[in-house]
Each structure stands twice: as structure tokens, then as C-alpha cells.
Amino acid sequence: MSFKKYIEPLRDSLESKGFNEPLPFQKQILSKIKGGASLFCIAPNGSGKTTSIVISVIQKLKGKAVGDAPRALIFVENKQAALDLELEFNAFLRGTDLRVYCAYDEKNIDHQRDEIYNGVDVVIATPKRLNRIFYLNGINLNLLQMFIVEDAEFLFRNQNFAEVNRTPESIDRCQYLVFSDKFDSRFERWQDSFMFNTQTVKLKK
Questions:
Q1: 121: which DSSP letter?
Q2: CATH code for the domain of 165
Q3: Could you tell me the residue range of the domain that residue 100 belongs to?
């Protein structure tokens, strides 16, 4: 596969950065994500997982800001991970008007709630902070199209798994994508509760 069928601003950004074709793992997952499949994406660092998240979200949302409620939610471990992912998005947003917002524990929660309420398309959040904002009625998940976890190993520390488990209770139909270095048996609980018919894709040796 190539990037020819992606929206023009995304193609231009990829080309300007020298991405002429997907990496091997991206060839396995990008077309599946583009087709709407829910996936566990299992591959080591350096396989292009983070770039796959950015490409897939921009493509799914067609590079357009729409309404006020977020359409993509990405869980990350901490503030630094959120800011790093935001930078990755910013590198590919030229020619789009998508609004990307980070929500993390060190920032004033009332300000975050107000800023999200004013309208965003993509929220990058730590699990604890996202749930606090949600219970303050500060985020509307009714229009969510993509629920993503980046580097999911962090979920099994500091109650993050339980925090993330609460979120799907407020979501209707959605595409779920979990990116991790390895498959953890605890992910199977999600397959039984909300990630039905999910495929597991591992990097081919």
C-alpha cells in the first residue's frame, strides 16, 4: 500500500517529511484502521506506531474541525507523553484545521474543562484527568469515533487500567485501537466487555 488514498494535506505532509511508503508494521495496520477495524497493534518501539496513530486520526477526521465535541480520544501515560504526541500531531496538521488538546494532571482542571467545552476534535489525555473532567461534565463523548491507547503498558500501573475501563461506559459505537509492545492477557477483559470482534495484529518477523 501507499499513501495515495489519504487526504491531500496529509499526503503533502507525509511527502514533505520523506514518508514515501509505510513501514512494514504500518503496512499491516493502516489499511485495517482506515477500514474501521478495532485492533490491538503489537510491535516494538521504532515500528511506526505513534505515526500510525497520527496518520489514522487525521485521515478519519478528514482534517476538518467539526462542532464542539471531540471525535478522537487518545490515552497516554503522563504529561510528557501527551506533549510529545501533540508535537507529533502538529508536524502533520498543515493544511488542516483540526484542534488537538492535551489534558493532564498538572494543569488547572477548570481551565481544561472550559477549553475542551469551547471545542476540540482530538483530546490527548491521561486516564485520571480525563475521568475527572468527564465527571465535572466537562467533556461530551457522544460523538467519539476513535478511542486509542498509546504505549498501553502503562495501564497496569497506578490504577490506570481501572480509570480507562470507566470511559467506554459513556461511549456508543466507536473504533478502538490499542498500541503496545506486547499483548497482555488483561486486554482480554476488554474483548469481553467493549472491544468486540477486535483483531490482534503483531509485527511479522
A1: S
A2: 3.40.50.300
A3: 53-58+66-144+154-172+188-193
The phi, psi pair for 62, rounded to 5°, reads 60, 20
Q: Is the pLDDT of residue 86 over 90?
A: yes
Q: What's the number of domains the chain is made of?
A: 1
pLDDT tier, 193 (very low <50, low <70, confident <90, very high otherwise): confident
The alpha helices in 127-178, defined as continuous H runs, are 127-135, 160-166
User: Cell 503533502 maps to which residue?
Assistant: 12
* Alpha carbon 15 to chain centroid, angstroms: 22
Cα separation, 89 vs 53, in Å, equals: 9
Identify the H or E element spanning 101: strand 100-103
Residue 200 DSSP code: E
- 26 part of a folded domain: no
Q: Is residue 202 part of a domain?
A: no
> Exposed (0-12), middle (13-18) or buried (19+): which is 194, by Cβ within 10 Å?
middle
- Look at residue 9 and tell me if it is in a domain: no
Global pTM? 0.96
Residue position matching grid coordinates 498500541? 179
Query: Which tens digit of pLDDT belongs to each residue from 109-121?
Result: 999 999 999 999 9
